[in-house]
Design brief:
This protein is mainly beta. Helix content is 4%, strand content 45%. A hairpin with a 5-residue loop joins β5 (44-49) and β6.
Length: 113
């Protein structure tokens, strides 16, 4: 129901743009978030964007990542710059707070030289 894409292998310092597409009933007038789960760790919130476009970021990505939304395309984006090896994870999108039945496959981001 929420399809994340745009992951891949990138060198440290590089950039990627993740895209999450969904349906109107999931997206419309809802707060949305990007989450990630690194190997051996719990899933965590990376960034969220409220329905009024206010944004909140985890301290670890502040100044490097930018979340945005297109309310006409029911799409959320995550622009990731200055990537670090510790950003390696599977990235997911969901509402914020998340609904358990909305977790999709996610998209793998690997930051490595």
């Amino acid at each position: 129901q929420l399809q994340a894409s745009g992951g891949g292998l990138v060198q440290p310092g590089g950039s990627l743009r993740l895209t999450c597409t969904t349906s109107r009933n999931i997206f419309d007038r809802r707060h949305m978030g990007w989450y990630r789960q690194a190997p051996g760790r719990e899933r965590e919130l990376v960034a969220r964007i409220n329905n009024n476009d206010d944004t909140v970021y985890d301290e670890s990505v502040k100044g490097r990542f930018t979340i945005s939304r297109d309310n006409y395309k029911y799409t959320v984006y995550l622009q990731m710059n200055s990537l670090k090896p510790e950003d390696t994870a599977v990235y997911y999108c969901n509402r914020w707070p998340p609904r358990g039945d909305y977790w999709g496959q996610g998209t793998l981001v690997t930051v490595s030289s």
